[in-house]
Backbone:
């Protein structure tokens, strides 16, 4: 395992650059059993399609500290790949433009520790499973789908010896590349879960023994003119902003009093050059520039007197219970929809409050009043400041997974459906 006190192999920079690297990965180095060297030294291969999934996975992997990635895909999203390279200057990315249709193309994957199959056509699926079997290489399979009025995604990790009867579920019916269903919000979730499985393989951890899946009814096209308030512009807020952009929502305001720090860069992917600058302003500007979103920022804390009259929904992406209680009480009092997300290293949850159907706020459902006990819920500044000196471990994966589910929950609400609260646990087979 690598920690800040270990001797560093020559692959790591020395002096000032070494200190900067350690600071960037500080939050994940605090995780018990974490092995940053395993990520640093690994080469992984990715097979993608003409959509966002491979690009999102590459961005998240680069943020985590995987530096050697070989991708075969017809296209990669230029904005996401540029972000990955600026976020991780040590990223060595090889991109072979095209589809994986023959084993003669395997040279790009020489010395890969594992392969990530994010394609949507059966020929690639079969070739990669055969490669995994014959060469004893783990294959992580993840994709979105639409079938019989249902949409969803599936992820599974194949290793030699897991030749079980449900393997056929992971192979697409159409052998050759063709038009396929894709969804940017699902892509955020799938890339996060696939990266979680990647980390587990590289660190000799446990992968899911069953298919990780999510399915729901296909939604009719809905208006995206709602006015949205996102409180918190950290990792959850960043990926929630991306999910809103991919879903076509145009009117969003991001609220956060903090500035970006170097220790945020292992998960807050849009702040690659914004250390010392406002998180809310940077996030809003990036979403405006890259996605044309009408995004605004508010450099302030959410307080009891915060005016939410003009917003249709409030997304809770804050990192302390006191502020979450204040938000819950405010939304309940003013009958505003609220979608609350929370994460830790291994797990996370999405709690939906709709005043038309729910009696209890997220704070009540999560029992936050008992947790904070006698603490002053009107002083989020005090709590936030103390976190800088007692930071919790944090990684990118759970944040992007929970952010994706938060956006999808809102899409379900707008379609007139009643979404269920989601509890995700990366240590549980099937995850949800």
Residues:
């Amino acid at each position: 395992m690598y920690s800040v006190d270990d001797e560093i192999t020559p692959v790591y920079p020395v002096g000032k650059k070494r200190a900067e690297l350690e600071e960037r990965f500080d939050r994940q180095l605090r995780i018990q059993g974490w092995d940053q060297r395993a990520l640093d030294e690994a080469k992984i291969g990715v097979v993608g399609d003409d959509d966002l999934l491979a690009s999102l996975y590459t961005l998240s992997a680069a943020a985590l500290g995987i530096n050697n990635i070989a991708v075969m895909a017809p296209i990669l999203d230029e904005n996401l790949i540029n972000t990955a390279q600026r976020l991780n200057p040590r990223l060595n990315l090889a991109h072979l433009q095209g589809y994986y249709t023959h084993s003669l193309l395997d040279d790009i994957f020489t010395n890969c520790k594992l392969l990530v199959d994010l394609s949507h056509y059966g020929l690639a699926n079969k070739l990669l499973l055969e490669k995994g079997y014959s060469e004893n290489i783990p294959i992580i399979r993840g994709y979105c789908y639409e079938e019989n009025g249902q949409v969803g995604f599936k992820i599974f990790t194949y290793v030699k010896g897991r030749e079980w009867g449900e393997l056929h579920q992971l192979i697409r019916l159409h052998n050759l590349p063709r038009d396929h269903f894709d969804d940017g919000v699902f892509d955020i979730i799938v890339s996060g879960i696939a990266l979680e499985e990647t980390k587990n393989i590289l660190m000799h951890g446990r992968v899911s023994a069953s298919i990780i899946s999510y399915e729901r009814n296909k939604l009719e096209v809905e208006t995206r003119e709602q006015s949205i308030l996102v409180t918190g512009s950290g990792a959850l807020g960043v990926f929630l902003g991306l999910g809103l952009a991919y879903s076509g929502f145009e009117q969003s305001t991001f609220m956060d009093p903090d500035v970006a720090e170097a220790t945020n860069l292992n998960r807050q992917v849009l702040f690659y050059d914004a250390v010392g600058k406002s998180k809310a302003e940077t996030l809003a500007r990036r979403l405006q520039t890259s996605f044309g979103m009408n995004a605004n920022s508010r450099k302030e804390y959410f307080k009891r007197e915060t005016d939410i009259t003009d917003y249709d929904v409030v997304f809770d992406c804050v990192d302390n219970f006191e502020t979450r209680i204040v938000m819950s009480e405010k939304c309940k009092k003013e009958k505003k929809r609220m979608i609350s997300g929370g994460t830790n290293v291994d797990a996370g949850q999405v709690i939906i409050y709709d005043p038309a159907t729910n009696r209890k706020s997220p704070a009540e459902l999560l029992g936050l009043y008992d947790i904070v006990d006698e603490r002053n819920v009107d002083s989020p500044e005090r709590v936030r400041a103390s976190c800088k000196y007692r930071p919790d471990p944090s990684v990118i994966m759970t944040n992007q997974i929970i952010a994706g589910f938060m956006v999808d929950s809102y899409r379900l609400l707008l379609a007139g459906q009643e979404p269920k609260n989601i509890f995700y646990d990366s240590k549980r087979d099937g995850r949800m």
